[in-house]
């Protein structure tokens, strides 16, 4: 048998977008057992591909080792020297991936790039001519690139790990093992337009902390977030922060053992989706129509208000036109609790 053929696949960030490549790459490898993947991505995301056969993860640090144009030249030379690949699949289409794509093509190999649907996304959030309709999911856009490269397939992905996989001792020492229910809560996102007011999330924490049968695990990071978590864990029983305590893989293992996750439109939604944990997701400035909904998640678990101004932003970073974020402030706590309860009841 000859040397294995590889595709060079690039998606540097963000965490949620890289997480969405996992079902696609796993399905590609299942459909083409003679193929492998050289995955170029951010170093800290390597655990998303840990244990995935025929994936060679190549960490690309664009702030240090592979910074700027000279960094991409260095990256290309190293890949060309150390690896063999047939074609490049660019799932990012940003300046760094464009530079590498050009070098790949100049070397005589073919490179294929994602169509992000930028024009239709602009229409989705346009304040003048808003076109509210479901756009292609990121998963389908990824699939389209592979098909253009000559590799058509459908997603066939059952999850990163089995629900029966036991938690490592390090984790059980931190969170215990006796809770009837585990509810993960990730109350933060990169932009304010995607964050439920913290007083509302705290009401959800208080509700489940008072039940006595539910352990609440708070996911996040950074000083401002951990300060909030410290206040909540000091105030409410059965509430624990996992911020800074675990590696990314360990956090995914914890999510695998949760009955549900309450999350904003953020990376945690996608991490939980990789282990088939139901996600009750909050949507304010953004909308599932843009195609970033979690893999395999029930659309009815999206919490959102039907407002003429929504969505106003694809990524949630545009300031609210009315400065009141009514799309988030108007969300009912009872609606969130009812959706969470639907999943907790399944374990009774």
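-> sequence recovered:
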């Amino acid at each position: 048998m000859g040397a294995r053929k590889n595709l060079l696949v690039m998606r540097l960030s963000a965490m949620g977008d890289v997480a969405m490549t996992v079902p696609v790459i796993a399905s590609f490898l299942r459909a083409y057992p003679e193929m492998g993947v050289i995955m170029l991505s951010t170093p800290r995301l390597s655990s998303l591909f840990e244990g995935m056969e025929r994936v060679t993860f190549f960490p690309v640090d664009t702030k240090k080792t592979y910074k700027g144009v000279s960094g991409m030249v260095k990256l290309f030379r190293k890949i060309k020297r150390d690896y063999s690949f047939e074609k490049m699949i660019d799932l990012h289409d940003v300046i760094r991936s464009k530079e590498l794509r050009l070098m790949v093509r100049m070397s005589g190999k073919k490179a294929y790039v994602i169509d992000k649907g930028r024009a239709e996304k602009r229409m989705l959030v346009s304040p003048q001519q808003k076109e509210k309709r479901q756009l292609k999911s990121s998963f389908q856009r990824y699939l389209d690139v592979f098909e253009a490269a000559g590799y058509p397939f459908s997603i066939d992905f059952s999850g990163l790990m089995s629900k029966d996989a036991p938690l490592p001792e390090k984790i059980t020492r931190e969170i215990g093992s006796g809770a009837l229910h585990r509810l993960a809560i990730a109350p933060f996102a990169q932009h304010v337009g995607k964050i439920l007011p913290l007083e509302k999330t705290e009401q959800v924490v208080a509700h489940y902390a008072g039940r006595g049968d539910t352990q609440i695990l708070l996911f996040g990071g950074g000083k401002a977030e951990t300060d909030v978590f410290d206040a909540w864990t000091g105030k409410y029983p059965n509430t624990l922060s996992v911020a800074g305590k675990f590696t990314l893989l360990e956090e995914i293992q914890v999510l695998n053992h949760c009955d549900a996750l309450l999350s904003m439109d953020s990376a945690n939604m996608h991490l939980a989706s990789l282990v088939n944990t139901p996600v009750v997701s909050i949507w304010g400035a953004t909308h599932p129509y843009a195609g970033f909904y979690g893999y395999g998640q029930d659309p009815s678990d999206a919490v959102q208000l039907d407002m003429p101004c929504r969505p106003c932003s694809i990524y949630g970073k545009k300031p609210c036109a009315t400065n009141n974020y009514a799309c988030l402030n108007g969300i009912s706590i009872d609606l969130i609790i009812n959706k969470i309860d639907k999943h907790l009841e399944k374990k009774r």
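The domain at 169-347 is CATH 3.40.50.2000 (Rossmann fold).
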